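User: Just a sanity check before I run the rest of the batch. Below are the structure tokens for the first item. I only need the designed sequence back.
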């Protein structure tokens, strides 16, 4: 068992991010950002990768070939990974982080994502950034692109990111029916600790929940036990009770609305104008393809593409939810399509000119001082 974990660690550390930065939000969080600095001579287009709910950067930077981050870096991109508040190294600046597990979706949209974009644009000098989000990370993109911050985004890719109108599953129905009991749960629900404790018995756990695992995680031919064990050990985070209550409310109402139920993100998808690639899993029972198709149809983007990842639509394999980025065959089936779409939507017009390059170099040096708006923690691999 220890040998297997050592091998997974070795895989994950190979060619990991070379720097960690922090983006400071207006409400007191330091949002962690990890960078794969582009090699000399690469086109160096910045792309920001955002993880799903209850996860961290490893969602988009898994072990071995299950790393979208390393695949895009190899293709010449300047790759940045965000860890939203409460995930990974992101920390509350004022007071213990554990006392502030009271955030909702809007905090990601209004604080974390804009702060991260500011850092990436300032350090790289690029006018606009590409965005790739899995599940919640794509939902954050929908919300972000309804705001003025959309001016800093050249295009976005979402994977398994619903609008909540058509989300439904028998297992979730039973859980959501008990959502009022969440008020008695602790503000910080220890899902990360539970997953870590379960990692040594990942095999029996996977066998015991084979049905939900296929619906919400991996199809059978995309499942790898070592990857699942790695994610249980390093890629699962504790959850915010307030965020879970918000998602349960959305599930019951079939719409995404703010904490006061005054603004519905679902009802204003036409405000999204940037180019979009929207990907759904053919066998995803958590965020079904028909719901994501509705999102794609409603988007106001003139340039938008909707793909269902499955054998019937020309993919070599069927996909569920997690395996869209962490599946055994995602690097063969999914990653090349994302890269090709990004390649056609990156623009040298957004690249910094000579003077801006000098300014961005100064910004990077300033960022390495704790007095700056953002500060890297030096070299940091997995």
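Assistant: Here's the designed sequence for the first item:
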């Amino acid at each position: 068992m220890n040998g297997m974990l050592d091998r997974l660690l070795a895989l994950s550390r190979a060619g990991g991010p070379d720097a960690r930065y922090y983006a400071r939000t207006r409400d007191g969080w330091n949002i962690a950002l990890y960078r794969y600095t582009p090699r000399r001579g690469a086109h160096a287009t910045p792309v920001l990768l955002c993880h799903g709910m209850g996860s961290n950067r490893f969602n988009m930077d898994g072990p071995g070939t299950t790393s979208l981050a390393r695949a895009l870096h190899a293709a010449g991109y300047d790759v940045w990974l965000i860890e939203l508040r409460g995930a990974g190294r992101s920390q509350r600046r004022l007071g213990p982080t554990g006392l502030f597990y009271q955030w909702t979706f809007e905090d990601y949209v209004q604080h974390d994502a804009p702060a991260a974009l500011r850092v990436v644009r300032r350090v790289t000098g690029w006018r606009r950034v590409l965005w790739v989000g899995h599940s919640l990370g794509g939902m954050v993109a929908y919300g972000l692109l309804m705001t003025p911050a959309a001016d800093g985004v050249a295009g976005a890719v979402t994977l398994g990111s619903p609008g909540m109108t058509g989300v439904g599953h028998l297992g979730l129905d039973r859980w959501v029916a008990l959502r009022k009991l969440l008020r008695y749960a602790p503000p910080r629900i220890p899902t990360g600790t539970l997953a870590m404790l379960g990692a040594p018995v990942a095999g029996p756990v996977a066998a015991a929940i084979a049905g939900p695992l296929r619906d919400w995680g991996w199809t059978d031919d995309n499942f790898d036990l070592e990857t699942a064990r790695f994610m249980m050990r390093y890629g699962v985070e504790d959850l915010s009770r307030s965020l879970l209550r918000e998602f349960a409310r959305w599930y019951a109402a079939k719409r995404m609305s703010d904490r006061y139920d005054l603004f519905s993100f679902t009802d204003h998808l036409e405000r999204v104008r940037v180019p979009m690639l929207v990907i759904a899993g053919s066998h995803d029972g958590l965020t079904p393809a028909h719901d994501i198709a509705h999102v794609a149809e409603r988007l106001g983007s003139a340039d938008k593409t909707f793909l269902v990842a499955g054998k019937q639509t020309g993919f070599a394999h069927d996909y569920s939810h997690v395996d869209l980025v962490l599946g055994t065959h995602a690097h063969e089936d999914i990653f090349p399509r994302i890269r090709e779409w990004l390649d056609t939507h990156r623009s040298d017009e957004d690249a910094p000119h000579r003077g801006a390059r000098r300014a961005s170099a100064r910004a990077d040096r300033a960022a390495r001082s704790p007095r700056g708006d953002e500060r890297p923690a030096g070299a940091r691999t997995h």
